[in-house]
Amino acid sequence: MGVWRGAVGVTAGAVVGAMVVGCVPSIEGAWRITAECPPQSHFGAITIEAQAEVEERARGEYFGTVTNTLGERGQFAAQMERSNLRVQTAWDGQLPTEALLVADPGGRSFQGIDSNGCDLTVVRP
Question: For the chain, give me the number of helices (H) and strands (E)?
Fold first, then answer.
């Protein structure tokens, strides 16, 4: 999603979509990510912003890049199943992170948490 020792990436790696009448829409394109990290997170209490670019590899499978306000860059892979998006981000020079995001009913945003304990909000810019 990125706050995932690379806060926000997906975590976009983050990233995004929703269920529309039983089908998974494409989440290709640009996404904006906000990570609200608690005091006990790896980063301490902080808000981290990030941007992700998502490409579709196959139906329900995505990959892309993410950059955040900490100056970190990462590459991610994501899998969409119904309205759930699981994102694994490999950060340049940092530990990898994971995030689980859930799409809102309209498919324009996601909410979730990453492996650093940061709350993620992912929206179209």
Answer: 0, 8
CATH number at residue 73: 2.40.128.120
Please count the residues of the chain: 125
> Does the residue 119 lie in any domain?
yes
Cβ atoms of 110 and 24 closer than 8 Å: no
Residue 18 clears pLDDT 50, i.e. is over it: no
Tokens of 107: 């498919």
Write out pLDDT tens, residues 1-17: 443 344 444 444 433 33
- Asked if residue 9 belongs to a domain, the reply is no
Task: Round to whole Å and give the CA distance between 93 and 86.
Answer: 22
The rounded distance, in Å, linking the Cα atoms of 33 and 22 is 26
Q: Per-residue pLDDT tens for 65-81?
A: 999 999 999 999 999 99
Q: What is the pTM of this model?
A: 0.80
Total Cβ atoms within 10 A of residue 3 = 37
From the CB of residue 4, how many other CB atoms can be counted at a distance below 10 Å? 39
